[in-house]
Structures are given as C-alpha cells and as structure tokens.
Amino acid sequence: MSTDDRFHKQRIADGLTEPARAANELAEKLGLDPFEVNYWIVDYDEMNELIAYGGFQRRYPHWRWGMSYDRQRKQRQFLGGKAFEIVNNDDPSNAFLQESNELADQKAVITHVEAHADFFRNNEWFRMFSESPDAAAMLERHADVIAEYMDDPEISREAVEEWIDHVLCLEDNVDQHRPFSAALDPEDEPAITADIEDRLDDLDLSEEVRDEVFDESFLDSMTGDEDGTAFPAEPELDVLAFLTAHGKAYDEASERASEYEEWQREILELLRKEAYYFAPQKMTKVMNEGWASYHESRMMADENFAGDDEFVSYADHMAQVLGSPGLNPYKLGFELWQYVENRRNRRAVIEHLLRVEGVTWRNFGDSVDLDRVLEYLEPDPVVTDPVGHLESLAPDDPRIDAETLERVRNGEDVGVERYPWKLLTYQGMAERHYSLVKREHRGFLKRVTQGELERIARYLFETDRYGSVEAALDDVDRAAGWDRMFEVRESHNDVTFLDEFLTEEFVETNEYFTYEFTHTTGDFRATSTAAEDVKKKLMLQFTNFGKPTIAVHDGNFRNRNELLLAHHYNGVQLDLQQAKQTLERVFELWGRPVALKTIRKEFDEHDIEVARRRDREPEPTERGTLLRFDGESFEREDLPDEEIADIRATEVDYDTKPDEWL
Length: 662
Fold this sequence. Notes:
Layout: H1 3-29, E1 37-42, H2 44-52, H3 63-79, E2 85-87, E3 93-98, H4 103-122, H5 124-127, H6 135-151, H7 157-168, H8 196-203, H9 207-213, H10 216-223, H11 239-246, E4 249-251, E5 256-258, H12 262-283, H13 285-302, H14 311-322, H15 329-353, H16 364-367, H17 370-376, H18 381-384, H19 402-409, H20 426-432, H21 450-458, H22 469-474, H23 480-491, H24 494-501, H25 504-510, E6 514-518, E7 523-528, H26 531-542, E8 550-557, E9 562-567, H27 576-590, E10 594-602, H28 605-613, E11 621-629, E12 634-639
Parallel strand pairs: 1-3, 9-10
Antiparallel strand pairs: 2-3, 4-5, 6-7, 8-9, 10-11, 11-12
Helix pairs in contact: 1-4, 2-3, 4-13, 6-7, 6-12, 7-12, 7-27, 13-14, 13-15, 15-23, 24-26
C-alpha cells in the first residue's frame, strides 16, 4: 500500500470515529449489548478478498478462495452489486468498510454492524461454539498449519489440496445442535470390528478357496455383534467427527485402506472446527440480518442518524437491501422482527383493556374505541422532544437519563442538540418509538380477532380491575415489545423463529406464497398462499442450512467395515448425480466401500396425464434406494419399506433444538 493510500484511508477513518462512537452509544440506549467493534477502511480489491475469505484477512491456502474472489469481483462488475460491509463474529468484532462508499452508506453500515455484534454476543447458538471467540487468531493458526504441510517436501501439495476438497464436501455435515467438542481420538473409542476382509487379503488366497472356506456365513459369524449393538449406537449427525475417529485413507498404490497420516487427521479436525464456527451464522441468517436491518432503520431513520443531506442516499441504500428479489433474508427478517414487536405490544394492551370494569372478550369491540386507545398511547412530548422540554425534565423520571440531564444543566456540551436521545433511558426510548402508534402499524391493534381475545382472557391471571380505559393504558409497559425481541434474539435460530412467528396473520398481511415446479405444466407456478404451506416451504429451506440431513447409520455395514450413510428424508429427494460425486469423496475419507440409503420419487406418465386433465398434481411413488460405491463403480438397489422406515418422514421433523431447550 502506498503512503498516499494509507493517508487517504486514515482520513476516512478519522471522519468516522465520532459516528462510530455515537452509534455504539445509541445502540446501548436501545438495549443492545454488542461486542466491541474495530472498524477498518479497505479498498475495492481488499473488500472482495475479505468477502471471499468469509470476513477474515487470512485463511488456509486453497483454490476455493480464488474462485470466490473471482465470482465476487464479476458479480459486482457485471451485475452492479455493491458491497456495503462485512463483519465477523469475534471478540472484538472486526468490521470492514469500503473506502469508496458515501458517508451515508458508512453510517448505515456502522449502525448495522453494531446490531450484528450484539447478535453475535447474545444469541445462544453462537455461544455453543465459544463464549468468547478468538476467531481471527484461530483461523490464522489453521492457515499456518496447513501452509506448513503444503510446504513440507515429504508431502505433496496436490495431495493436501485434494484432501481438503474431500473434507469440504462434508463441511455442513456436523451436528449443529450440539456444542462443539474435539472429535475423539481412535484410541479413545471402542475398536471397530476387526476387518476380516483385510486379513484375508493378506493371506493371498485364491478366489476358489476364499469362496469355499471363508463364505458369507463365516464372515458374519466372525464380524457380527453378539448383542446386536449397532455401530454407532445411534445415528451420528457429525459425519466429520465419525470419520476423524474411525476413517482411513484410501491408498491407490496398494488399493487398500490405510491409517490416516498425521497431517490428514489434523486437517480434517481443523476444517471440522471451522465448520462449527461458521454454523451459527448459517443457522441465523434471517434473524441476524433482520435484527441488523431493524436497528439500522431505527437509528438511521427514526433517530435521524442520517443527516438531512444523507437521508435520500440512505433511503436508496435501504430500498436496495430490502427490495432484492427472491428469498431475501433481510426483508423477511426485518418484517418478522417488526411482527414480534407489534404482537407483544398488542397483547400487552389487550391484557390491560380486558381488566377494565365492564369489558370482556365478548363485548370488547363494542366497549373499547381503539382509535381513542391509539391516541392515548401516543408518546409523551417529553420523550419525543426532550431538548424542547429540557427545563421540565424530571431527573427521577425513569424515562430520563438523570446523569446526562445534570451534565447538560451544568453547561456541558454533550451533543443533545444533534442527538436528543442522549437524554433518554431505555424506557424513554421504548416510548419514543412505540410501534403500535406508528403510521405503518396503526392497523395492527385493530386486527385483533375474537379468538385471540378469548385466548388472552383465558390466561389472564391478574384479578385487579381498572376503573377506566385510561387508567389501564397508564400501566401499559411500552418496552414490552422490545423486551420480547431480546428474549427471542437470545434463544432462537431461523427454523424456530419461523416456526413460532410465521403465523397466518403474518403471511396474509405480507402476502407470502409458495411456488413449485408442477409436473402437469412442466414449469414453476404459484401453488399456495396458505400459512402452513409457506411455513413448511421456508423451514425446509433453512433446516440444516437448506442442505440434506445425512447421518452415519452403520460403520460396519453388512459386516464388511463399509460405511452406511442415510439421508433423513423430509419430502425433498436427493440429486442422485451430486450424491454420487459426494460418495466418491467420502470413499477417500473412509478408505473402504461406502453406501447411502435414501428415498426417491417416481412419477408415472399415466398419473401425470390424469392429473393434468383434473388440474392437479400427481402423487409420486416413494421408493427406498441404496447407492453403493466401491472405489471403482456404483451399484444401485431398491430397498424394501422396512429398511427405510427409520428415514421416512411421516410428518416433517425439523429437529430444531436439543430436547433440553424445548
């Protein structure tokens, strides 16, 4: 980097010091508790490199990063994409801002990043990897270890890179619902049943002798488990851990399985550890981006963090982010977080109104004027304009920051003219931004149904009654919606988030629908607006990162030390061509034949024609399939129904949380 470039970046950084400090202070006023964030100014190429590296400056040497860099560069060059920021889950977090972005974009990025850093720090799924990550240092250590192996004259660089390719094929096959722990050393695990086949190979017997003396029944008697215990005892979702402990490398020279070299086992475990580190980010994409977009909007627009001369630019930035086509995690997450806030605020209001003398869930619509309720819930001018009411602010008002008020009255310049929120506490901010009275949400309270009123009344345990609607509303906690958001932020992932909050009301209000490939028309069509269909479609896309769930079912399949993997079928069939390519990689990590059982769908042409005439979709026939690879060729066989009972989904099981979290 030239001296001029360094000075240019330093000038940009100096200009962002005050906005970054103020954004952090505002984030804390809003109840956020982020990691400390280090902000770095980078140029166009550096930003592309960071995006390719997943937000870090150093990763292990491998061709995948160059491919990612080239894709990112071309996407921006030819498709007009614009990189606003990248931030990593670390303590402290590191955020990288592109130097060419306008000031409005930089400020928007900073507010967005503060919310991400809060999510990283407080979401339980991130803590399953580490309470306090030191990710940059971990990834740098991994890079050094792998680079040393590649530079070792006794180890082929191509062999190391090919080994990484094999492992990366399975990087999403970890148990994302269990805290990370090191894979067991083979010596710490019960030994796999002795490999009789390998021992017979050592004897160099003729095929005739082998077939006569050491027939199938002999092999079964020597390798079968007397107590019928399977290996592993339960399906193992962490395929990489199982391979680390029990796998062998296939040696082409001897055409035999051999124990892993030290470098092979270490690289496998390093890449597995990285897979666990990145798993929470894949599991919370909608929540995390929605959370950041929500608080960015709150700070930039509602708190005027974007100056008058910056607001149009910011609004264009936000429109680009939320208006991207397809399944947009920013837009879906943003709308869901607003729904969480509004729904909890509405419930708090209804709970208080149902305790007014004479009001019941049956006569609620006739007894309560909701327009008057919304007028009464409008924020107090003291919190909407604390600077204009400076003389009347009371230090003992829980909505007022007494310490800042005292400093202002003592003549200190703390910037309240530019940032009036400094005079407020969390309670004051919650009232200032109370969601139900905002123009875009004013209809939310009125959408309460009789069914919801009845449910709330049934579980209303407070027995004290209010003499008037006004008295009831005086006791409404304006922070109820925000408090609920923080509870959800702490415990949920995308699948549980969608499961709980993607309600019929949300789907209808936001006009979500599903589209599918239809066999009767041969193209994609909108198929349903039903909430349960939309929820199922979305949850299938986010379960297991949207990838098929594969588990180890048997490490001694058919008593031949073969590996049996099973696809936990959820109604979506595997791409068999991709499955074959993956099995070829797994063979290199197991060293012996590997098999995969799954379920495939078959459509009868006659059924398709009948369905076309009746304007509906044909029902497929589901068949069990075993795909086996022995290192040279593939075999495929049909499986009877009893052999696929353990992988067939009668109802979709999203497997979202460990039992103790339910």
